[in-house]
Amino acid sequence: MLSKQVCALSRRAYCSAVNLASDIKNARPFSEIPTMSFFKVAKGNLPGGRYYKKSMREMQQLFYEEYGNIMRIPAMLGRPQFIITFNPDDFETVYRVEGNWPVRMGLDSLTYYRDTKRQEIYGDLGSLFISHGEKWANIRSIANPILMQPKTIKRYVAQIDDIAKEFVDLMRKIRNDKSEMPGDFSNYINTWSLESVTAVGLERRLNLFDEKTHDENAKKLIKGIRDFFEMTVEYDGKPSIWKYYQTKGFKELLKVYDNITDVIMYYIELAMKEMNEDNSSTAETEDSVLRKLLRADKRVAIIVISDLLLAGVDTTASATLNTLYNLAKNPEKQEILRQELFTILPDKNSPLTPEKAKNMPYLRAVIKESFRTLPIVSGSARMTTKDVILSGFHVPANSHVGMQPVFALQDDKFYQNAQQFLPERWLRDQTEGCPRAGTSNPFTFLPFGFGARSCVGKRIAELELETLIANIIRNFKVEWHYPDMKIKSTFVNIPESEMRFKIIDV
Ligand code: HEM
């Protein structure tokens, strides 16, 4: 599916590449891109300022209203100049010139931590998440065959299904007398996400659903990952002085990185010890993600697993909550999905197998429509490797560009009846009269990013998400009886409301 999408996108890219060189001289100059002055950025981010304590989504709204499709934020406080575009035609242009080793401006705080504080581990090795150039390419070339191969992921289907079934049991236990989930249900979903990703990455069940059996390290990890998202937006997403003076808050972020690193090292050491003691290794266990990573190098394993946990827990948890919310708000769509699931898996407790999982088009359409209506990441970024034209302006090579599809995804111009939750728009066999997603600009919809640098955990995320949603919908009718959900928008959009879904046994 991904490769088909990428092929379609590449063909499009090739066709529109033809005009580019001759057009550059007719473009408006770079200096005319609407620019926010240094003074305005600084004042806006101070207490009482226009952008002070605003979420990523609120800032996007303000920028869009003030500057339109494209804007420029000047270099400041150790950060390079940055272009922000909301125009999907620009996304296509930028991805087209991303080069073989795409650069995504990222988390300088994490780079600083890894380069200076924990040299002994991270040192000269790259990272999936934050490195660039050859270092990134080396580690990505180790990770790709391990994490992106359907064969490797298939071996986790049964385990991920078991975890989902345990979570369904947990939902039965934690519902109140109104049959509603507790206010902190998001935290439960987060533990499910961590339990699932560590089952794959660390080859270990952390038993997070049982307060009595899980250890302090697991708790530390969950808190660390949540703090990571909330704090990095302050130090990497907004102007900050930490490169010149380390504030108390920044030191706390370094502590968060330390905690996460220590816990991961603890689990990797444990896994290595168990593997050494375990002589019953079979072709099957030899195939596991962790064994393959450890075969490459212990430090590589620590880095890749850290990146997987940082990038993979809150994203998948939010995607699950958003999908459940959309299904609860659209009971008729939920019913269509339930019918599909019962046709393929008539007994609600029967296990999901890779063969059966392949045959659920409506489930996949529901998840896609959820990504469209409630996107998980706020946008992506790339450095241009050539001069390009963005929204009519000349943008030189080596410019950092943030691409934010948030408004296009809600725009009737790209998605007919955009405000409606219509999974059918993604189905190959179209329902008569239903708008098609295929007719819109495909660059508006890249939930897992694009090209060589796209999400390396996509297959794991899809497996987890599909499996849990399928198990929940086979067991419960899910309802929502509260005001519309609010989103806390950091680099990842996380539900902020209490997620008190009502569940009724099917
Ligand atoms: C629904 C869940 C998820 C969404 C929506 C998501 C989305 C994304 C996006 C948009 C990117 C940036 C891609 C680009 O720049 O083109 C990314 C990168 C990444 N994701 Fe995910 N992700 C999800 C789950 C996961 C999971 C479960 C893992 C790990 C198990 C993971 C690991 C990563 C890593 C390591 C990167 C950096 C890749 C690189 O730069 O080479 N993600 N993800």
What does this structure look like?
It is a single chain. With 506 residues, the chain is α+β, with helices and mostly antiparallel strands. The protein has a single domain (2-505), classed as Cytochrome p450 (Orthogonal Bundle), CATH 1.10.630.10. It is 52% helix and 7% strand. The chain contains 20 helices and 10 strands. It has helices spanning 2-17, 20-24, 38-45, 56-67, 88-96, 108-117, 119-122, 133-147, 150-154, 157-174, 185-201, 216-236, 248-277, 283-286, 289-296, 298-329, 331-344, 354-357, 361-373, 458-475, and strands at 70-73, 82-85, 380-383, 388-390, 393-395, 400-403, 476-479, 487-489, 493-495, 502-505. Strands 1-2-6-3 form a 4-stranded mixed β-sheet, sandwiched between helices. The protein has a two-stranded antiparallel ribbon with strand order 4-5. Strands 7-10 form a two-stranded antiparallel ribbon. β8 and β9 (493-495) form a beta hairpin. The protein is globular and about 65 Å long. It starts with a helix and ends with a strand. Protoporphyrin IX containing FE is lined by residues 104, 128-129, 140, 197, 307-308, 311-312, 315-316, 319, 376-377, 380, 447-450, 453-457, 460-461. Heme binds at residue 455. This is Cytochrome P450. Its cofactor is heme. Pfam families: p450 (PF00067). Belongs to the cytochrome P450 family.
